[in-house]
Amino acid sequence: MLERLEVLERAGVEAGTSVLEVGSGAHALATVPLAHMVGSSGRVLAIERSRWGQFRDLVMQSGLRDRIRPVACDARWLPLRDDSVDLAVCVHGIRSLGGEESIVRILREMLRVSPRLFIAESLPIARTSAQRSHLAMYDLRHDVFFATSGRRDDLPYASLDRLASLTDRAGGIVDASEALEVNLPHSLAYFPRSLVEAIPAGEIREDLLRRWDEAAENVGKYGEDHPPVGFVLAHRGEMNA
Known about the structure:
The protein is of the alpha/beta class. It folds into two domains: 2-123 and 158-183 and 226-240, Vaccinia Virus protein VP39 (Rossmann fold); 126-152 and 190-223, no CATH class. Helix content is 39%, strand content 19%. It has eight helices and seven strands; from the N terminus they run H-E-H-E-H-E-E-H-E-H-H-E-H-H-E. It has helices at 2-8, 31-38, 55-62, 100-113, 129-149, 160-169, 193-197, 203-222; strands at residues 18-22, 43-48, 68-72, 87-91, 116-122, 172-180, 229-236. The chain has a seven-stranded mixed beta sheet with strand order 3-2-1-4-5-7-6, with helices on both faces.
């Protein structure tokens, strides 16, 4: 949540703002900071399709429940009127939106319901050994999960230029973009070797096991630090108005 708060400080969230958050996730990591930032007169619409996990418990513990409204839906078809919120955000959620066409569709929907858009995602940049070990482990996730379940999740981190390009394709005009060094540990990339072992025997399984072993060794040696985070702040273009 500290990392999310630092990133969201670039989004221009003010007291009294109504915010749509796409991809709130199981732990409300950006939802709670957003609820703090909008104040008692603001509101946060937290969109998640199915992975709510501990969301409700954590929101209750935050003491900010009255500012947060969870909405279960597919973000490609938001159940909201045009211009119904002040700002639409997606923080560390782009990698879970299922591919480029789906991402553009969702960003376009976000720009339909809000005149302003803020997206942020980890970047495929490593300046330290701990960041390199994080990226090596994270880059395995998509291949392993797709091999075991066919799920297109945990997409490779997008570059800052690609985030801006996706925003442009969705009809947004970029006002600002930047890479931030957050300087925090980041162990969420790790997953157990047993997931790789469950892949049916073959060259794919053996290659992924080798890569997992190498990544795990480096995680044990260097730890995992957060790579830089890129953000894009944009407004709706005239064609989408």
